[in-house]
Amino acid sequence: MTGWYDTAGRVLxxxxxxxxxxxxxxxxxxxxxxxxxxxxxxxxxxRLWGRDFDGPIGLAAGFDKDAVAIDxxxxxxxxxxxxxxxxxxxxxxxxxxxxxxxxxxxxxINRLGFNSGGLEAFAGxxxxxxxxxxxxxxxxxxxxxxxxxIADYIAGLEALHGHAAYIVLNVSSPNxxxxxxxxxxxxxxxxxxxxxxxxxxxxxxxxxxxxxxIKIAPDLDDDAIADIAVVAMDRSxxxxxxxxxxxxxxxLASRQRSEAGGLSGRPLFERSxxxxxxxxxxxxxxIPLIGVGGVASGADAYAKIRAGASLIQLYTALIFHGPGxxxxxxxxxxxxxxxxxxxxxxxxxxxxxx
Length: 354
Description:
There is one protein chain. The chain has helices at residues 2-12, 17-29, 70-75, 119-128, 149-160, 185-202, 222-234, 269-283, 298-307, 316-321, 324-339, and strands spanning 46-48, 51-53, 57-59, 80-86, 99-102, 107-110, 135-140, 166-170, 212-216, 239-242, 262-265, 289-292, 311-314. By secondary structure, the protein is an alpha/beta fold. The chain has a single domain, classed as Aldolase class I (TIM Barrel, Alpha-Beta Barrel), CATH 3.20.20.70. Helix 4 packs parallel to helix 5 (149-160), helix 6 packs parallel to helix 7 (222-234) and helix 9 packs across helix 11 (324-339). It starts with a helix and ends in a 15-residue tail after the last helix.
């Protein structure tokens, strides 16, 4: 698997980043990527929202925006996959070039702008795999020209409610004008209230409601953290994903460091992990957190778990290190948990954030 990716990776890196990404997705969807043998790590099994996960390592939103390669990505070793961000109507996104590799920094900058094939095609693909195994979350957003953004989120929830393990409201992409304004306390409360109402209407009697999460930015001050935490706790939100890409550019070496857009990858690790710990403290661990940002090793995943994450996501490191990274992270993480005497991964969540 590693040898195959070393060769394919060298070829892909000769292409512009977005072209390489599209080719990789097509290869995955066509079944052309070798599938590694999955190992069982009993120590990594976890349960969240009444659902069992084989482990805590998931693929972050943004890699498979249109849900075209979910089964191949699960077969690659991910314990869950988050598809999207998907918008109600198809839209092209921002002009190209809009995706940049910062190899010296182990990072990407994107200003894709919610390029999406739309809900209808997305929902159809998920419906087509309904009986297949694997946990799949969906990340929903708004069209750039939307006159009613909340209605866009409701449309996403309604279209995908029966096809997902959880739903994420993306209110934090820096590439859709005005989107991050939904992170303000009153705006977020109004959004969550409307989505909770729709979810209640969609939930069959006697069934557990579909988990509803918010994905937030890493560029938050203490007041914003407190406001989001209050909304999340008051409305019994099912989780927060911490966090999205950053608009900060501290300490970058790449000549492309000044490109506009959201930065992901290694430079985001410390910032996003500190934010994760802050949310765990301010919520008292009562809201499940998914940690994402700069994860490239089992030690990175372990640090996020100890900071307060119940699940972990990655994306950028996969681009630089290939699919062998997934099993490497799991093996190292299981070893670290065992070394420190944990018999269940949940026992390690937040131990460094007290």
